[in-house]
Specification:
Blueprint (H helix, E strand, L loop, with lengths): L3 H11 L7 H6 L5 E5 L2 E4 L4 E4 L2 H4 L8 H13 L12 H13 L5 E7 L2 H18 L7 E5 L8 H6 L16 E4 L14 H19 L4 E6 L15 H11 L3 E5 L13 H5 L5 E4 L11 E6 H8 L18 H16 L2 H22 L3 E5 L6 E8 L4 E2 L3 H12 L2 E2 L1 E3 L2 E4 L7 H17 L1
Parallel strand pairs: 3-14, 5-6, 5-7, 7-8, 8-9
Antiparallel strand pairs: 1-2, 2-3, 4-10, 9-10, 11-12, 12-13, 12-16, 15-16
Amino acid sequence: MKDENFLKANNARSLWHPMTSPSDSHANPPTIVTGGEGVRIRDVDGHEVVDGVGGLWNVNLGYSCQPVKDAIAAQLDRLPYYSIFRGTSNDRVIELAEELRDFFALDGLSRAFYTSGGSDSVETALRLARQYHKIRGEAGRVKFLSLKKGYHGTHFGGASVNGNANFRTAYEPLLPGCHHISAPYTYRNPFNESDPAKLAQLCLAALEDEIAFQGAGTIAAFIMEPVLGAGGVIPPHPAFMPGVEAICRRNGILLIADEVITAFGRTGAWSGSRLWGVKPDFMCTAKAITNGYFPFGAVMIAEGVAEVFESDESGKAAIGHGNTESGHPVGAAAALACLAETKRLTVAQNAAERGAELHRGLLAVQERHEVIGDVRGGHGLMCALELVADRATKKPADKPVPGRVQAVAYRAGAMVRVSGPNIILSPPLVLTSADVGVILSALEEGFRAV
């Protein structure tokens, strides 16, 4: 490995980073991570911290999950690549499809379409949703509905249904026919409603109103995260997603659950849909499916949707979609090992228990620091702190403030993530109570400094 001076000097010289401007990497050099073990990461200067971000919501099993590493190495020796386009397949993708079918059986999902990651999974679900309606003779169903504050990746389709202007404005015009309703965001919403149950009903009424305005027969699908992640960890009231499902069913609209973050235990349930008792038509997965060790994803498809495709004799069901890496055997081998470890370690239960500890601790930190306007969490290991300049008016904190908290917390022993006025926490699901304590202590120091 090159020495630390070389790495620091050349990061911004030859590399553009996602989700920031090229000039920012010059002005604010990033933390250069060079090692990881368990739930801890180590930077180029040798400083070691608990990773409160879990890579990017994806390293659920930590950085030293040997069975997944071994599976990758063994598959590279045996078959490092082969396409699964028409006419060929490989053993690993077939084995994995059966495992996924069993894993998501309670969600009503029985088929898998492989992708290279979360954005690919969303793009796939959007395409297949339109195709489903065309097969059934409803070619006019082309529009998509989604939530403001929702995040669905960065492909053109995903950016179009994203509910955050930061991922849209620079790339417009985007896909036509994408419309957004207000999210059940209790802390800030256009209804000035602080009761989560009442807010859920207002948002559901807004959905019905939008469907009536657009015309149900023009809408292909509604896409949502069971718990909004990148938008600031916004958990809806338990009635909301079942309400969305019921409205979609009444109107012939498909429901796409974007579970790129929430699948495989993150919420304390094995899927976010299962947390709310919902059975979607499509489920987008990626991230934790390989623990972040290999770029891979899968769209899970409900039995009823599969039947429409598989019984078609008109030729409309031919799937003209996929990419070179779809069904990569190394990714499939990694996913098989990852699923086995995910179940063996019962990480969903640990996420629920440690998440409750973390949430309680964050509420205690809020009591000591006025800059924390809202604490969100309580559903597994996904929490957020929204920072404000004034609690009474909810005016967002000045832009540098979250970054200062982050910097001090990092020096004190924990990596946390800043997104706008929010500090987001999504640590590995193998976190211990002691690790929770480290994160809370580091944040306490960060807020004390601010």
